Amino acid sequence: MNQLPQTAAINTKRPPPGLAVELAAKFAAYPRKAGAALMEVRGWIFELAANDPAIGKVTETLKWGEPAWLTPSRSGTTIRADWKSKTPGQIAIYVNCQTDLIDRVRSHFEGILQCEGNRAIILPLDRPLPEGPVKTVLGWALTYHHDKRKR
Fold first, then answer.
1. Which residues contact 16 (CB under 8 A, 6 or more apart)?
2. Which one of 43, 44, 60, 80 is separated from 14 by 20 to 30 angstroms, measured CA to CA?
């Protein structure tokens, strides 16, 4: 039986870094609820990175016009997140479709996290984000290559 990874106790509550100008403009353009949810996801990414030396520094940028987070240490795979006007009641977190991350999400979080295809996790905005499952998935993405090398 697959077990979920144990999450280390969070020792550090450092705030995420300030937004670069282009990212600040992108976040300011989101509707209030979507922007707040995306900022929450952003905060979790930086929190996980601050508490796991295997991840190291996280670089934040726009990739295909969407907020994206990369690990220059190459410990993980790129994470993107966005809100789209054609689906206004949700945000999505995107991972590389060449990974097994969405398959893992489906096997561990069926009924909790909704997946779309082999690259997206859909998070409805009409309820609180499921912090534990989302942080677990973000942790998997941030350490994807590091963990793969260990296997």
1. 42, 43, 45, 46, 47
2. 80
Angle, alpha carbons 91-63-80 (nearest 5°)? 35
Residue 43, helix vs strand vs coil: helix
Phi/psi at 69 (5° precision): -130, 130
Pairing of strands 66-70, 59-63: antiparallel
Which pLDDT tens digit goes with each residue over 86-133? 999 999 999 999 999 999 999 999 999 999 999 999 999 999 999 999
Q: How is residue 131 written in tokens?
A: 């912090």
Report which of 86, 85, 93 is spatially closest to residue 142, judged by C-alpha positions. 93
- Asked whether residue 9 carries a pLDDT value surpassing 50, the answer given is no
| Single pTM value for the model | 0.86
Sheet holding 79-84, edge to edge: 59-63, 66-70, 79-84, 87-95, 120-124, 114-116
142 to 57, 113, 127, 130: CA distances (angstroms): 10, 18, 25, 18
Phi first, then psi: give them for residue 120, nearest 5 degrees: -130, 145
